[in-house]
Design a protein that fits this description.
The protein is an alpha/beta fold. It has a single domain, classed as Aldolase class I (TIM Barrel), CATH 3.20.20. The chain contains twelve helices and 13 strands. An eight-stranded parallel β-barrel has the order 3-4-7-8-9-10-12-13, surrounded by six helices. Helix 8 packs parallel to helix 9 and helix 9 crosses helix 11. The longest helix has 17 residues. The radius of gyration is 19 Å and the shape is globular. The chain starts with a helix and ends in a 6-residue tail after the last helix. 52% of the residues are buried.
Amino acid sequence: MSIAGLAFSLLRGLDPERAHRAAVWALRQGLGPWQVRADDPILATQLWGLEFPNPIGLAAGFDKDAEAYRGALRMGFGFVETGTVTPRPQPGNDRPRLFRLPEDGAVINRYGFNSKGIAAAAERLASRGAGIVGANIGRNKDSVDALSDYAAAACRLAPVSDYLVINVSSPNTPGLRALQDRTQLQQLVSMVRVAATEGCSGEPRPLLVKIAPDLTPDDKRDIAAVATESHVDGLIISNTTIERPATLKSEYRTEAGGLSGAPLFEPSTALLGEMYQLTGGRIPLIGAGGVADGAGAYAKIRAGASLVQIYTALALRGPDLLPRIKRDLVTMLRGDGFGSVSQAVGADHR
């Protein structure tokens, strides 16, 4: 067992939230399993004018306050998404709020956007150096003007990040998912775009929207229309689900919050394919939800994802997961005759 694997085994003995904080602290201190060789060139991809060394990113939720992104990049992630961060600091929901479901390869969380606020995140990101880092932004729970919250966060974080993500899909902030409504989403995207550029005198940043997996057919069509008409730069598909499959076995299966991990893979991948078709493949998509191996990452790419994010499987299986995913992805791409990740994007629809 590697040193990183041994450390992970020790973390598994801790309460889930304490283990999460310990992992963030370790990466922030420069402790961790570092990538020792460059990625295979077949994994390199270009998107939004950015050069990704590989398509596997660390999803938002791990590095909530932009404390550990440097360490995550050194592990070998192609990009890291920080947040979700809110304009003002807030503690989030009461503990316990994070539950492992190991029998199901899943996690339930109801963190509730616990955040130290945009000022702290912006300060840490201001001197970030090399590597692609995104900023996922949300609203404060007690906010009376959600749109202004997003605009304020975008204004502060756009100059210090490579892309922005509007999170309107967490199930743990009351009323948040209502912002996926067509009219509200149009207003939100427009307001955030203005705030991130004209309002802050900053360079334009790619603007993405992270959506829920629990959508009606009308919701899907409306989001696709807004994304196309408002020139959204990308969609992240998807956030955690409020559904509870009957197949769940863990004692924590009925806990409130968002379910992530293996049970989310099939519905989120199906939604990814639908949104690829609804947008005509014109809008870059990031596939998230239940990826636990190279085959899962490859399935997301073939369904329409230009990039893929992981988190839950990493928490359950340990840091050795990342190099395995990349190695297996290389084998699968070459096995199907692709010379790059971009050639495989949406292959299932051709």
